[in-house]
Amino acid sequence: MKTVTHKAFKYIQTVEGVSEYLHKRNGLRVLVWEDHSAPVVALNVTYLVGSRNEAVGHTGATHLLEHLMFKGSTKYNKKTGKEIDKIVFGMGAVANATTSFDRTNYYELLPSNRLEELMALESDRMRGAILEEKDRASEMPVVRNEFERHENMPAEVLEKEVWATAFREHPYHHPTIGWRSDVENMSIERLRQFYNDFYWPGNAYVTLAGDVETSRALILTDKYFGKVQSFKRTIPVMYTTEPPQQGERRLTIRRVGETPLVYIAHKVPSTLHADEHALNVLAGILGRGHTARLYRALVDKALATEVSVGNQSFHDGGLFTTLVHLVPGVTPEKVEKIVLAEYIRVIDSGVTEEELEREKYIVKVAKNFAKDGPLGLAGQLNESIAAGDWRFALDYAKNISKVSQTNVKAVAARYLINEASTIGHFEPKNK
Amino acid sequence: MIERIHKSEPALGVNLVSMKTGVKGVVSLRASLPAGGRFIRGSSSTATLTADMLEQGTRVMSKKEIADLLESSAINLDIAAGTSWVEISANLPVQKIETFVGVLAEMLRAPAFPKGELALLKARAIASVKDEKQHTRSQAWKELCRTFFAKEHPMFAAREDEEIEEIERVSAETLSAFHKKYYGLGSFNVCVAGDIGVNSWHKAVAKKFSGWDESKAVITPNTTSVVSTFSSRIVKVADKATADVFLGHPIIIDVRSRDFQALKLALYILGGDFVSRLMQEVREKRGLTYGINATVAGVSEGDSGLFYMWATFAPSLLEKGLAATREVFEPFVGGGITAVELARAKQAMPGNYLVSLATSGGIATAMLSALETGRGLSFIDEYPKIIASLTLAEVNTAIKKYIHPEKLVTVAAGSI
After folding, report:
1. Which chain B residues are Cβ-neighbours of A354 within 8 angstroms?
2. Residue of A271, A310, B16, B364 with fewest CB within 10 Å of its CB?
3. Per residue in A343-364, is it b (16+ CB within 10 Å) or e — as a string?
4. Predicted-complex ipTM score
């Protein structure tokens, strides 16, 4: 297929139908994937800023800023009669923004004949956001209520505490939503500084997926985002690293509740590390579906109602986690022993060929589902961008297919070790 | 879209509806049959456990064999009982159609209800019910349902202790009898979208479902409701940072009528999206909540259901939040929506509908909904035209006809 070009862009590469371009003037990177099976298109703008760029005193800044980005920009505000929400939701778009450790993104899935309107809007708020104290003051309690919703859920509270215990120096210590007192007291000046530090075209990706010709995608991107000024300063570098953990860490949360929880976490390397795919296979074998080892050891024996296992890796590392919702009356200690015994079984004896092949096939099929509608692939690209390489999602099934039984056994032995573990219990107490 | 939909009856009493989409190698299925909680008076656990037991073993396959076959084929299958329908949702690779239809037919037609597995399932079900005591949203919702509906109504919600007793009483024989009576052909709807070949689905379904017994399920609408003796109630749940609040009252409306679409449009303006009146006033202007919305539930089968508004408020902001909600709600009922708002909804609702059809799963869901509600498949194309044709008078008349502030009951759950 002939490569589409545009004078404002440098063509970089095409992987699995996704083409990458670099805007020559301001450094904006653009990804385009064409799929004309339905008259809809996804527009996603990813900024390489997340809670990893925060420190105590302004934790939650990325997330609070994400909320304020809907309050208005130079051309889109109440005075001009063009309010962001009214335009986006007025056309029936599925739209939202999300913040994570490593990135912030703003996305819309919309009728493809309305794309140009949202390209204009997203480009305007890239450098033209209006950040005012009155908006911070009214939005802060909204974010605080979001925080409170998370606090209502014991599993989320436990997860937050485990991450805060496992990471002591690296900012993955902080929950993305921030600590409550930071959310309540952060100034508008600090948020403006945060915006001016990180919201630049050279620190962003625009992804267009769905019913749009690549040539039109480039014309529209240049027309609107091409005008956005390039860096006037250097993006602040996050240089804090987490030192090696030298012993097991434990915590317990007690509050009124019904269901005990156990959360077992082990340090793992970054998403782009060579062990990533073997760790994901391991997580699948331990926790995916009703054939998984931990499902059979816990749920099938009525010790637990639910078990979930994940290799939660990010740009700078992460945790391999198992969360178990216990049947009331079962002790966390008993379940913890069973989970760790299953880990040991993999370390000692590895996994079967049947288990490995099942995981590979599931991933291969999932790759096809990712291209069922524009938003799925746009979402995967968004996470890959955050991890450090947008091609990660597209190469994923291919790399999973290369994982061997030896690889899985080796990563279990390398990472599921006592010295690198953090174990949390939620113990319900009486009213 | 209707011209791309293929409809057939591979076996008497099975409606197979399919549509090829642009995706390669995979298929999404949404199917249902009427075997939900409404068919056993006051005992929804029987229907729930019957559906949950389907994967626990059949006459020729053990639980392990079912799970192994599905997961090694990368088939993602979920079966769950609702108030009226048992809903089946699956994603699968196109090469595994025969495997999938075969195992689904085995699970639906010949479950064994092994007693040992039932005992384990009941233990997990009881644990889940206990866990619900800590969920503020669930507690508030169930209390609202108990306020307006008696035990024989599909929307009645038992208290946790009663629900646990009910689960404990369930036996394999109870489930087997329920299955024998209600699982079968008649209103079995199967909708598939994705990389499909019509013939392969038709053949597989015909082969595996022909000759299945006829279901005895007949959905008889229950239009009863109870007049509440109170206007507000608090459910105490300890150690919660935020409260969940429902404000609602019973409603009877035909989902196939223009009135229904007029009311849905009205509620879209009241609390259907980010720029709705409730979100703009209670969240955007006053900063009192992360989210608030308004909708109707439980009316699909002609039953009395609920109109409700739902929000979360920190306990310290509860009074302010409720006052702000009422300040938005009262002029909405009194004055209706404006021509400008009608025009906005006429743009937004069809656009939103279009993007909901962007995936195979979205299309299969829309097809199944059209069949379950009796609107017919042509509704998928007609919906945007219906919205475009609604007049301001129709919408505002629907508000007056169906929304009654004097009947509104408020239930809040949390550490209040």
Report:
1. 72
2. A310
3. beebbeebbeeebbebbbbbbb
4. 0.92
